[in-house]
Amino acid sequence: MGSLVHRDDDVDINQPLLPESTSHLGSKASTSEEEDQETKQLASRIWIETRKLWKIVGPAIFSRVVSYSMNVITQAFAGHLGEVELAAISIANTVIVGFNFGLLLGMASALETLCGQAFGAKRYRMLGIYLQRSWIVLFLCCFVLLPFYIFAAPILKLLGQPDDVAESSGVVACWLIPLHFSFAFQFPLQRFLQSQLKNIVIAWVSLAGLIVNVLMSWLLIYVFDFGLVGAAVSLDISWWVLVFGLYGYAVCGGCPLTWSGFSMEAFSGLWEFLKLSAASGVMLWYLSIN
């Protein structure tokens, strides 16, 4: 009887409870499930971040494309007037307006840093102050750049353009002076709203400006036959629609935290603001011409 009794001492404690093959398969299955779960979580996070990113980037891309499209559309309408007219408005837009556009856009880009920092620090009132300072600085710089428009014809002749094209471009450039001054207000407004993640507002206003541009180009060039002057005026009106649209949203309740009205504080620290804006403007202008 003693030989039939099972003793615990005879049991090998190192022997696995399950066969080795079964344990290995279970471990592989568990690892595979964990990897699948991690992959699904990663894909979900990527999708969420992508949606957040495109909510910001998508309207910004659209508004920038619309801004350039307005010039192209007006040039397309003007192309039916003749080769000289097409060359004149193309050169006025590309050389004269393009030079000043890049410089003023770069100067307004200083707001991206200042407004972004102020918004992140919850100093919301300072966004409105920075916006007004940028308006003042860019508006004064528009007067400094004004000779490029007034003396566009002799400048283009000096660059080797034919006399008829240079004279026509000079006429267009003078009529584009209102467009030039619109940059001083529109660019800071865009940066002011972008820092608050209000890109969708910029996109809707840009769409309205594009519609106005097509309508005014057709009316002034085809219907009323104003020629090159009509093409220039259609651009002036379209870009000022953008200014008034963005300004109306900002000051009429769209930005209650960051816009508290006009303030004399905007006139303080203008020299430091000018230096920062000038450095930003030169940098972006240099990149745009290379």
Automatic annotation (TrEMBL):
Biased composition (Polar residues): 20-30
Bilayer-crossing regions: 87-114, 135-156, 168-189, 201-225, 237-257, 269-287
Gene Ontology, cellular component aspect: membrane
GO molecular function annotations of the record: antiporter activity; xenobiotic transmembrane transporter activity
Pfam family, one: MatE
Residue ranges of the region described as Disordered: 1-37
Highest rank taxon of the organism: Eukaryota
InterPro entries per record: MATE_fam
Record keywords, A-Z: Membrane, Transmembrane, Transmembrane helix
Listed PANTHER family: MULTIDRUG RESISTANCE PROTEIN
Protein family per UniProt: Belongs to the multi antimicrobial extrusion (MATE) (TC 2.A.66.1) family.
Protein name as catalogued: Protein DETOXIFICATION 27-like
Species: Carya illinoinensis
